[in-house]
Amino acid sequence: MTGLKAPSGSATAEHADVDGGPRRSGALAQLKDVGFWAEWAALAGLVVLVVVFQASNSTFLSSGNIEAMLTSSAILIVLGVGQTFVISTGGIDLSVASVMTFAAVVFGLVYKQNSNLILACIAALLAGLVFGAINGVLVARGKITDFIATLGTLSAASGVALIMSNGKPTTVINSTLLTLSSGGVGLFGWSFIIAAVIAVIADVVYFRTRFGTHVLATGGSAEAAGAAGVRTDRIKLGVYTIAGLLAGVAAILLVSRVGAAEPAANTAYLLNSVAAVVLGGVSLVGGRGSIFGPVVGGLLLTALTNGLTLLGVSQFYQPLSVGIVVVLAALFSRFQK
Length: 337
Description:
Layout: H1 11-19, H2 21-32, H3 34-39, H4 41-56, H5 63-88, H6 96-114, H7 117-141, H8 146-165, E1 170-171, H9 175-182, E2 184-185, E3 188-189, H10 190-208, H11 210-220, H12 222-227, H13 232-258, E4 260-261, H14 267-279, H15 292-310, H16 318-333
Antiparallel strand pairs: 1-4, 2-3
Helix pairs in contact: 4-15, 5-10, 5-13, 5-14, 5-15, 6-7, 6-8, 6-13, 7-8, 7-13, 9-13, 10-11, 11-13, 14-15, 14-16
């Protein structure tokens, strides 16, 4: 009779299960889903870049170049993690690169005075934390738009750095600091290991603590989160402070890599930190995010610039390529679930 269906234990059902028909069709449907690729855009893009650049230049995947790329990506990963917390609340921190520069100058000047590496590191971390807290107070307590508040501190941090250093770089020569940028375990330099540890800690905070839950709730709907008892002003103060503290960490990594505290702000780190977050699938309107994604996004951007350099492409084209990648990632993010 046409109205009867085969029982679940029948040969027909078993045959369908053995063949994997429903499973296969489900997998194919997932692969055709734009949202699926949007979720994994950064990782898929990184794999494509590795294949293309290795095919174009066999030295791309050499041990020396892989180690160099991982070390180079450390600063961007640290800044991207801090930016992730801010953007997850629906905000943005335009001052991270300038705060990093300011913290680096503080590091250099403190080390120049007493040659105490630990004291210089603490000073750099405090410098970043203070500016991050200022951002948080301006946004959370002062009710100033995050764009304007951090744009102001961007200029302020850059200006203070130039005033304190008199516009001159401070050379920092320290064997331990040199080891931070040149030593490591296998292909993983100490700088990258530090960045990876920070990312793991951030992931635990982001997904396994009440603070992380409140961060996502604040980004999803500040009004609803506030009605549920979340102190959204404290959450915003916290995320900007975290971003500032991590900018201080990035400053230490930067000085160890360059060997000097440069007072000139590198705006590329600001743009790339936001780009890594966008590539990593973090929603720019808040409420949805990841730590793993921005880490992969930072690796992708580093691999992109490194591969173009190996191919002899002019540095003038590198910002263009980064911009195109970011716009494509932003378009893909519209389809994320």
